[in-house]
Specification:
Two copies of one chain form a homodimer. By secondary structure, chain A is α/β, with parallel strands linked by helices. The first copy, chain A, is built from eight helices and six strands. The longest helix of chain A has 17 residues.
């Protein structure tokens, strides 16, 4: 695609984004150069700023520009409840329900032995220190209901129970608004077992 | 997704890329911050460099860092043939065939009245000046075989014929390696009309 090294370097760099192959990267580069050079510079500055200024909250491990994130600083939060999620996006999903007023711990990943991601990589020791600070009474495991999320919840749950903490898991069951006919068998089976 | 302005700004900026919505942008930002900060800085520098250093070749209008691109500078090229394509990616596709040794003119777009893209926006006056330089004998229209590409080829072709230039269009027909049973009717009809 023409002879410019700057263009080839841009296409290569765009391919570092997840889900972007060489065709998408070329299309993105062409779009920015032909129609939105201002956008290219806005994106360049945003990347630079984010890469240098964003760090992890010392309490919950999510992204923040400060030592402690706004959620952990909020005095209205119930400090006896700690909700463990995989990512900031999962935390945002729980927040949107407005059904939880406690604090979070964001693993920033999940256990995945095949990818070499072990307990240390998801900050298990930090979570244990955080959960045994004397204020936390209940830890709610809100990792995803995937194989890896379940395994992560199991490992964390066992470690917390060994420290005599109350550990709960989000309820499994039939999604709100769904018709049984279209719900998968595993979900119905779990909903039967966990009926109340 | 947490409380950082730098992160929100990054997600907004990533959404300026074509085909990237808020979910993809969040995923990209999370990936860069969690797993590839070096990549974020590489991309930032590549964007900055491309946005400031890449301009258009004064002869063929493609992207280049120089006054004239490498293809137009190449003395081995046949200067009597000019192939008109929509984008640098289309030019690259023609180049990969190794079946064309002439020069190019890259429109950097196509006629699209609904989007307000007229002859001036695709550099029709530049193309006419380029094609009437005295060296060019034949102009090959290699715009896409879409409605807009065909309209673009028609408009350019009429303007060039009015200047007594030889104008050709890429042949339409059945793609190499295809079985007639699976080729669309329009293509077979064209291949019948253009049989030789």
């Amino acid at each position: 695609m023409s002879d410019t090294n700057a263009l080839a370097a841009l296409i290569d760099a765009l391919r570092r984004l997840p889900g972007v192959g060489v065709k998408s990267a070329s299309r993105m580069a062409f779009h920015l150069l032909q129609h939105d050079r201002a956008g290219a510079q806005v994106l360049a500055r945003a990347l630079e700023k984010a890469a240098t200024q964003i760090r992890h909250c010392s309490l919950c491990h999510t992204f923040t520009e400060n030592e402690v994130c706004a959620t952990c600083q909020d005095p209205r939060r119930d400090r006896s409840k700690l909700c463990v999620v995989e990512t900031p996006a999962d935390q945002a999903a729980v927040e949107r329900t407005a059904a939880f007023g406690g604090l979070y711990f964001v693993l920033m990943g999940k256990l995945s032995p095949l990818d070499g991601i072990g307990p240390k990589d998801i900050g298990l020791d930090k979570l244990l220190a955080r959960a045994t600070d004397g204020e936390v009474r209940e830890v709610i495991l809100a990792t995803n209901f995937t194989a890896e999320g379940e395994a992560t919840a199991h490992v964390i749950g066992e470690a917390l129970k060994a420290r005599a903490l109350s550990v709960t898991r989000l309820a499994r069951g039939v999604p709100a608004g769904s018709e049984l006919e279209y719900v998968d068998l595993g979900t119905i089976a779990h909903a039967l077992v966990d009926r109340k």
